[in-house]
Amino acid sequence: MKNSDVSVSVKIAACICGRDGLISQAEEQKMFQLISNKFPEFSLDYFDTAINEFFDSDDQIEDYLSKVNDQEMRQFILGLAEASASVDGLDIRENIALQKAYQIWGETRYE
Length: 111
What we know:
The structure is a single chain. By secondary structure, the protein is mostly helical. It has a single domain, classed as TerB-like. Helices cover about 70% and strands about 0% of the residues. It has six helices and no strands. Helix 1 (about 5-15) crosses helix 3 (about 45-55). The longest helix has 16 residues, at about 70-85. It is globular, with a radius of gyration of 12 Å. About 35% of the residues are buried.
């Protein structure tokens, strides 16, 4: 997996985590933990760069979602976003953004 692909997953998770107006330190830590477990070559420097690019960008969640075609990566990203957003309590706005991602990708959320 290329770092640019993993970077997109960070940005999608950040879009969802930030829907409540803030990406908490706990959410960032959870994102990095889950990403580094699956992609150990994705360093903290790459992660920080992806987060900074997210904050500097005007891209919307739809823009990032359109960049991911791999089914396995989509499943990972949805789990990443949900776990990260839930770490400090899944706000209704985060949940709506998560549901939007599921809908755009035509996925079913199993609860």
